[in-house]
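[09:14] KT: can someone run the structure on this one? pasting the chain below
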Amino acid sequence: MIRFFVLASSLFLAGCASSAQFTSARWIPLETGSDASLRGVCAVGRGVVWASGSNGTVLRSTDGGLSWDTFEVPAAPGDGPNDLRDIEALDDQRAWVISITEPARILRTEDGGATWTVVHTGHAASFYDSIALFDDGDAVVYGDPVDGVFDVVRSEDGVAWNPVPSDALPMPAEGEAGFAASGTCVVTYGDRHAWIGTGGTSARVLRSRDSGRTWSAAETPMRQGAETTGIYSVAFRSADDGVIVGGQYDEPELAGANAAWSDDGGASWQAARRPPSGYRSGVVWLPACGPRALAVGRAGCSLTQDGGRTWFDVPGDEGFYAVSAARNGDVFAVGADGRAARFVYR
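[09:31] RB: done, structure tokens below
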């Protein structure tokens, strides 16, 4: 059944920056034919969307989610089932996916998912959380610290990957790491700017202004101090304006200190005055809608129309792990048991 929610007053959404007006929005459920736990999603645009998840599952649609191709990315010889997290794609043929099955790997396809090539294998202790692409073809992958150093690797062609030197990265605090819940704890804007959200004992934002070559850190007011607390997702709509969401995974109904915003490129962060009512694992800006963003989590979804200062929960029981928005306005979310939906807001 299609579940609708009506945003009937200007309290929620009064229109897009393009002057297009809308007073309602809805989730359109999609039948993927999969029962995988989907943790990664990438909306490319013009109907193309990819998703990734458990048991080596990759899904691809070229018709806006009406039908899906299913692929299995094989694990390395001797490994168990391949557990895939984030996925990023350029079009309906070229995509990258990260596997957390030890050792962590980055794989690439150039034939629409039919075959996959390992382009990078991490340390024996590597755990990759998220991958992001820059506009100029560079790419960056973020992983939990290894031997006291954030595990960040970058590429200029998607094929050759090199670790970012330790002296170009802030030192992680003891117990500070990342989350692979939605594949959005590292994000990019344009061809130079990138941000990483951390969690655990410390919830900070690492930022780069040189395509991931060097990084600095900023403190945030997000919930932190426990293994499951911190920043789960980052989104920027410009080089300056960003939002972060998260909370505490094992207490999804716990409100407060789970959303913040920045207007200076991530150098400083302010807590949301009215945060979502619970844990949120993914957030995206709604294309062509100015300071309006959508956050999802397994406990529900929330919207902001003022750049993350105030959030309003969306009525209904829609729960998702990850969300992605294409520049043309396509927005897709995925979750447990092969669940997927398209968000229509125009």
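[09:33] KT: thanks! The longest strand covers residues 38-45.
[09:34] RB: yep, looked fine to me
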